[in-house]
Amino acid sequence: MVEQALIERAGRFHGHICPFLVLGLRASEIAMEKLGLGKVGEAETVGEEVLAIVECNNCFADGVQVATGCTLGNNCLIYLDVGKNALTLVRRSDWKGVRVYVDAEKISEKYFQKDASELFDKVVVRREGAPEDAEKLRKLWTEIGYVMGNISEEELKIEEVKVGEIERAPIFESIRCEKCGELTMKTRIRHVDGKPFCLSCLGECNAVVGRGIVPRFKIPLTRR
Ligand SMILES: [Zn+2]
Ligand SMILES: [Zn+2]
User: Fold this and answer.
1) Full-model pTM
2) Around ion ligand 2, which residues have CB less than 5 A away?
3) Alpha-carbon gap, residue 184 to 206, rounded angstroms
């Protein structure tokens, strides 16, 4: 069961406490327990010895990062753009993993009161709520969030999986862009007429935005 202090810490990281944030904590806790792992520390993060594989970029993924210590920045978080609330935790030593999947429909039918779902539709989906609706939703969401910390294993789908080897983050040399003069990872440099340019100067790169990975996303920056 997820401790209150961890829920609070996750809330500070994520900006708010909500059901799927806490489900990310709970799923992580279950996977860590089954693999006999604690939160990753110095040894595991430097060597990327433990990986957390998430399948969506949402509240759930933030819960996973806080609970496991596997983050986007330490390369222990792998993001599969699949669009599911699921976590697979795996260790490199034997590539044995545990996948925990959360069925949002089952959970919401059982735990989300009707007014919470309606309020969510109004405030988040249709973006039509008044400030007091948003406040009411925040309170309800926090309440349900805490309940999610105690959800039983039977209410989640938990499976043992074998994970195919995933490469360690390579370290590449940097090359200076001919146009902006900024150092850029070698693999992100394109040569035009024999000269090196960064993707920013060329105008597009792959990006993770709210809807997932978007290939050839237009660089949204203009210098003032
Ligand atoms: Zn959230
Ligand atoms: Zn450039």
Assistant:
1) 0.91
2) 177, 179-180, 198, 201
3) 15
